Amino acid sequence: MRVVLQRVTSGAVRVDGAVVGAVEKGFVLLVGVGHEDGDEQAQWLARKIAGLRVFEDADGKFNLSLLDVGGGCLVVSQFTLFADARKGRRPSFSRAAPPEIAAPLIERFAEMLRQAGVQRVEMGEFGALMAVEIHNDGPVTIWLDTDELVK
User: Fold this and answer.
1) In this predicted model, what pLDDT tens digit does every residue of 83-123 receive, in sequence order?
2) How far, in Å, CA of 39 to CA of 82, rounded?
3) Is-catalytic flag, 80?
4) Active site residue 141
């Protein structure tokens, strides 16, 4: 699994003009699922994200986690994180898991975030044409890839 984590002051997802998910202080998580991904990768990411210390303490240092600040997560499916643009000008998405695998895993990942203690977890709409609004805070943007991190 791959996640682009953005620390935000707020974020929202609209489908056909209607808000389907929104958070205030916390993370917008753009999440891609590959063919080999499963519950182990989702669980690892959920725990990592819930405990990642990227919020400032009173001294301005990254010492506080999402759980410490009571932040929320907006989970947005993003198969394009598995784009392969090495050949030609049109990327291939063959490394992304098909929807019948990716959609339920992203749902389970959101539930795992809740189980890890994240109080508010909102979601985009899998497979929909989404307008994603991100008010990046910092900016803080972090790339997490379980192929590189889970051993």
Assistant:
1) 999 999 999 999 999 999 999 999 999 999 999 999 999 99
2) 18
3) yes
4) no
